[in-house]
Amino acid sequence: MKVYNTLSRSKEEFVPREPGKVGFYMCGPTVYNHIHIGNARTFLSFDVIRRYLEFAGFEVNFVQNITDVDDKIINRANEEGKTAAEIAAFYSRAFIDVMRAIGVKDPSIRPRATEEIPAMIETITGLIEGGHAYEVEGDVYFSVRSYPEYGRLSGRDIEQLQSGARVSVDPRKRDALDFALWKAAKPGEPFWESPWGQGRPGWHIECTAMSERYLGTPFDIHGGGDDLVFPHHENELAQSEACSGHLFVKYWLHGGMLTIDHEKMSKSEGNFLLLKDVLEHVRPQALRLLMLQTHYRSPFDYSVERLHEATSALERIESALRNLSWAIESYAGVAVAPNDLGDKSVSWTGDLLARIEATREQFKVHMDDDFNTAGAVSAIFELVSAGNSSVKDGIYGETHRLAVIEAHDTILELLVVLGVNLLADTGEGEPAYPDGLVDLAAELTGFVGDDPAEAVDVLLGLRIEARAAKNWSLADSIRDGLTELGLVIEDTASGTRIVRK
Ligand code: AMP
Ligand code: ZN
């Protein structure tokens, strides 16, 4: 398996420190607002990476923090007349809910900054003792000059950075590039006791302290969006390596930024989208499928058109899966095909089995190549088409049927590896039974039960009778009644059924 490492600016063979185990740290959100779809893109990308590592047999210890103390949270609290803790609690909950709604797996550990202050104080103390940090009036700064390799992750030159920063130099800092590890409390702000007086931690120290505490260093993978490479990750790395004297992270993985209609997301331009608002009219699985079609490191351009296309693509997969399920069920125990295709069935079975194997192989090859989800999705689509054509005239014997079952299950399984869980989202294969179905059957057929599945059977049975009797108005009212409930009748070679629109 190869992964692109920001540190070496190249694809490297992925060899975790401990065979079979992966220590993975992912910067979490600062909880002062609902997350936007750019954040969602990054969290989805890394969810897929984690899922694939697990699929590949690794035991992944996935740590993701929540930044629940920060200037932005404090500002928001002041604006709304609430405490910072109330704001953080509300948006943390909202974050966890919306992550679950899009099927992002919960991390193994979800530390919160405010609960990890002792670990941060310990790290800062170590840095001061080692000569890498200094205190000024209750603030503590990291001394960038004390870590000669500063700039190594982002490929920046410290001299150049310094000439850029000189203008805004704070006289209390020894060097313009030094950054705060601890900030003295200002009136009205949340604070914690520390050896340097009351105050709160800076942002960067949080991830250094928490990753050390929960994973130990060096650990295998550190993830986040491109925008975090500098200064956040550069600073994390400097603090950690200055403190421990050894490597912080083996593989640094960064995701590309999301734009909307080729523009940077910006509130003032009006092209700013919160994930929760998008999910009001879009299925989470469609959003996922859309994002999977672009490599995680490439920039991703979001547009409503692309989302519609992804929704159609998702529906094509679902419709194919329903076809396969339908055929599998309809032909259970049917030894001989209704019409005779003889040898064709043998070659169909062989072709389908070969396609399944090829899809599994290609899926792996693409994902092993720095998580090329776009390639993996196209391999799945080839199996979808092959499965569909294989059952278009029915199923010919048990061998063919077993191959179709395998195709169906392979599609579902590989999609789940990419986090597209059709069973969770839609109950693939099971028709949806909206309210009103039993009433419709009662009205049109005199049905007296209360089981919607039976109501469907009775309605479809009556429609067949009505058509045979050329009673078009009854057949049409059955179809129209179902349409009103959001259901469509599909006549296929292997029978008639209803599906959701
Ligand atoms: P933040 O709460 O700002 O630290 O962001 C949380 C995560 O979202 C980080 O990993 C960021 O890199 C990522 N992120 C922020 N903006 C975007 C964007 N426009 N596209 C993709 N990822 C983003
Ligand atoms: Zn971080």
Set out the fold topology:
Blueprint: E1 2-5, E2 10-13, E3 21-26, H1 37-55, E4 59-64, H2 71-80, H3 84-101, H4 117-129, E5 133-136, E6 139-142, H5 158-165, E7 179-184, E8 199-201, H6 203-214, E9 219-225, H7 229-244, E10 249-255, E11 258-260, E12 263-264, H8 275-278, H9 284-292, E13 300-302, H10 304-330, H11 343-368, H12 373-390, H13 397-417, H14 422-426, H15 437-445, H16 452-468, H17 472-484, E14 487-492, E15 495-500
Parallel strand pairs: 3-4, 3-9, 9-10, 11-13
Antiparallel strand pairs: 1-2, 5-6, 6-7, 7-8, 11-12, 14-15
Largest sheet: 4 strands, parallel
Count of extended strands: 15
Number of discrete domains: 3
pLDDT average, as an integer?
91
Which percent range fits the helix content? Answer: 40-55%
Which ions and ligands are bound to the chains?
Answer: adenosine monophosphate, zinc ion
Regions with pLDDT < 50 over 5+ consecutive residues? Answer: 425-431
Strand % is: 5-15%
What is the C-alpha radius of gyration, as a whole number of Å? Answer: 28 Å
The name CATH uses for the topology of the largest domain is Rossmann fold
Report how far apart the termini are: 40 Å
Quickly describe the structure.
By secondary structure, this protein is α/β, with parallel strands linked by helices. 49% of the residues lie in helices and 14% in strands.
